[in-house]
Amino acid sequence: MKSQILELRKLIINGQKTVNDIINEACAKCDALKDTNSIITDTYQDAQQRAQDLQQHIQRAANNLLYGIPYVMKDGVCTKGIRTTAGSAFLKDFIPPYSATIYENFNHHHAVMIGKSNMDEFGMGGDGIYSAYEIVKYFCDPTRVVGGSSSGSVSLVAANVVPFAIGTDTGDSSRRPATLVGVVGYKPTYGLISRYGVMPYAPSLDHVGIITNSVTDTAIVAQHMISFDEKDFTSQRIGNNQFYQNLKTVDKLTIGIIKEIEKYLTPDVLKAYLQCIEQLKSYGHTIKYVDFMDEYLNAIKTIYSVISYAEANSCWANLTGIPFGANFGGKNFDDISTTARSKTLGQQAKRRFTIGAYITKKENYEKYFMRTQKIRRLLVDQWNKCLNQVDVILTAGASSTTPKIQEVLAKTFKTTTADDFLCIANFAGTPSLSLPYSKINGLPWGINLNCKQFADQTLLNIAHTIELQLENQGVHYE
C-alpha cells in the first residue's frame, strides 16, 4: 500500500529518523513555500517542542499510526491559544478559548500540527483567491490557482510538505482543489466527523475534509477522526470506524456514469474522462449509465447559492466586533458592527451575506429559501435513486485543469455544471472522494467517486481498488 504516513512511521520506529527530524523537515519545506501563501499562521516553535517531548516517549509510537506525523489544519478550525482567522481580516487577532474536537483528537493521537493553512474567507470561494492573507498559488506554477476554499491545506499536501491536511467541504472545497493539484480529497458521510469548533459556512452542507496523497493515508486519518461527539448535535454514529484495518481491494464493480456531465467538460478533460471509463471496463468493471436530468443538473448551482448564502448570513450574524473580532469603535451597536464589517470583510463575503440577508427577509423566505429546500429534496431523492442502482458513481473531479489566477480575477474563466455537480454529495450528506487520474498538458486532473450514506468503508475500498488499477496503467499524456 502506498502511504506516506506509514513510511514516516517506519522511519521513526526503526530509529532511522527522530520525530524532531520529521517535524523540522516539514517546517523547513513549509517555510520554503511561503511565497505560495499556503500558511496563515505557522506553529513551528510549538511543533518542535512537541516533537522533542514525543521523542522522549517513542515507545508509544508502536500502537499509534499518527505518532509524530506532521499535518496542517485549515484556519477555520478553532485551536485553543493559536490564532484562528478563517481567512478574514475581521478575525486577524482572534485566539479561540477552546479547541475543535478534531484538533483535540489529533493531539490525543500525538500528530503534530505545523501550521494553520490559508483559505477563502469563511470558506466562501472556489478558487483560493478570496483570503485576506493573499491568493494561494500552485507551487508548480505560481500563475495558477490551487482551488478553494481549502487551498492552503491542499497545496501543502500536493507539495509533499505534510502527508495529510484538514480542510472543509461545503460544496466541493476539499475535492475539487484536490483534483486540480493531483491529490486525494475525501468528504465523509455528513456528521461522521465532528464539526464542533469548526467555523461554519452553511451547517446543513458543511463537512470536514481530509486531504492526502493516497487512499491508504485517507483511511488512516479518517480512522483517527471519525467518532461520535456529543458536543456536535449533528454527529452520527457508525458501527465500525477501523477504515485502515478494513481497507481492501474489491472485485468487479458496477460503476454508474451520468452521461449528461460529458458536455460540460473541456475537450482535453473529456478525452481523459472517457479514457478512464474505458480503462475501468478493461478491468472487468460494468459501466452503467444512470439518468440524471439536465433540469436537475442546472438547478444545482442555484440551490447551493440560496441555501449556503442564507445559512452563512445567519451563522455570522455575530460578526459585530463587540464580543470578538475587529472593533473600530462607534457611537452605538449598529455603528460599531457596520464599521467593523465595512473595513474588514472581503467583497465575496459581503456579497454572500447581502444575498443571504435578502433571501431570509420575511417576505422572501418562503418564496426563495423554502422553495429551494423542496427542490433540494427532489434532487437528493433522484441522487439516492441513482446510487441504489450501482456500487459507485464516477464523475469528473473538475470540468478543466487548474486555471490561471488572472483568468479567475478577470472572470474570463468560468466553472461549469460539471463542477457544480460535486455539491450533490453535500446536499445529500453522502460520502465522496476525488482521486488523481492523469496529467493533461502537464497539469493534474482527477475523477470523483460517490457512494450511499454511511458506505464510507465501501467508498474507500473502491477508491483503493481504482487507485491501484489506474496507477498500473501509468496514464500521463500531453
What can you see in these coordinates?
The protein is of the alpha/beta class. The protein is built from 16 helices and 13 strands. Mean pLDDT is 96; it is low at 474-478.
Q: Tags for this entry?
A:
eleven-stranded mixed sheet, alpha/beta, 40% helix, 16 helices, single chain, disordered C terminus, 13 strands, 478 residues, two-stranded antiparallel ribbon, globular
Quick summary of this structure?
With 478 residues, the chain is of the alpha/beta class. It is built from 16 helices and 13 strands.
Query: What string gives the helices and strands in order?
Result: HHEHEHEEEHEHEEHEHEHHHHEHHHEEH
- By oligomeric state, this entry counts as single chain
Question: What's the N-to-C terminus distance?
Answer: 28 Å
Q: Biggest β-sheet: count, sense, barrel?
A: 11 strands, mixed
Question: Could you give the count of β-strands?
Answer: 13
Average pLDDT metric? 96
Question: If strands are numbered along the chain, what order do they take across the biggest sheet?
Answer: 1-3-2-6-8-7-12-13-11-9-10
Low-confidence stretches: 474-478
Q: Note the overall shape.
A: globular
